[in-house]
Amino acid sequence: MLSLRLVLLALGLSACAGSRLPTTEVLPASPLARAAIMEWQAWGRVVIVGWPDEPPADSAATPDRLSRLNEYWSSLPGGWRIAQRHADLRVGIIAMEQRIGTETEEGDGMDGARPAVAAIDDMSFYANPAWSAAFISAIARLAALPESDLPSSSRHARYVDAMIARSFAEPNGARFLPRAPEEYAPSPGDLICADRSYEPLVHWSERLADRGRPRPMHCDVVVSTARGTIDAIGGNVRGLVARRRFPSDQTGRVLQAPSGRPQFMLILADRANLPSTP
Predict the structure, then answer these.
(1) 206 in a domain, yes or no?
(2) Residues 6+ apart with CB under 8 A from 28
(3) Does residue 157 belong to any structural domain of this protein?
(4) Number of structural domains the chain divides into
(5) Which of 17, 36, 257, 270 could form a disulfide with 261 if both were Cys (CB 3.0 to 4.6 A apart)?
(6) Which of 149, 155, 107 is nearest to 129 (CA)?
(7) pLDDT tens digits, residue range 245-263?
(8) Has residue 196 been placed in a domain?
(9) Is residue 112 part of a domain?
(10) pTM of this prediction?
(11) Which residue range forms the structural domain that includes residue 57?
(12) Residue 101's pLDDT is what?
């Protein structure tokens, strides 16, 4: 359960290590980044570099992955309904695989060969409703961030609106402060967000006039930076929790996505990463 994993995560954070954390990686100080790394480890350490067209090789809907996905949904009010829907879908997919296997064995006598049915049991079948915001909300709770810092929501736009509003209402107390990607180099624990709309916002401040309206977005948690790259972990990335590697410029600022891909428009910077705040 999520509450039990919260206790385990707290123990892992205090010990600066965990059984599922990579031993060759310097762990960030940010609890949010650490929580994201733990989940990424559990999902099989899938890394996606840039914006490839081909899907990841490992996208199987394993019992552990589905269990974690349902925990993300169950951490949200009313999310248990979606978790139940996934459970029902899983039962149907297993029944379909069994039926295909039986029909093949009794079919045209091709030495008992079975068709490639592995693709039926794929995480892409559980990608709707989109769960990337549920992932962010769940790991925020695993990292023991209070709702006032990063509210739980099934939509990125909702918690983004709340976090921007708090940065204005409590400029000296808000945990996260909005920054433009072209003006700020992200650090582990920051959220990096892209606008997936047909007509995307050019600058995060444009969201102030758009506040409260539905807008498809996607946010990842920055977990590491290196010369020329920024690593961020997000949910529902090709149906998985994946580590995405984006290019950065000489100052550490993220480079914009290629034409036709969602453009970065906001970084929610953790106050702890800022040398000074207004």
Answers:
(1) yes
(2) 34, 37, 188, 189, 223, 224
(3) yes
(4) 1
(5) 257
(6) 155
(7) 999 999 999 999 998 899 9
(8) yes
(9) no
(10) 0.84
(11) 2-82+123-273
(12) 60
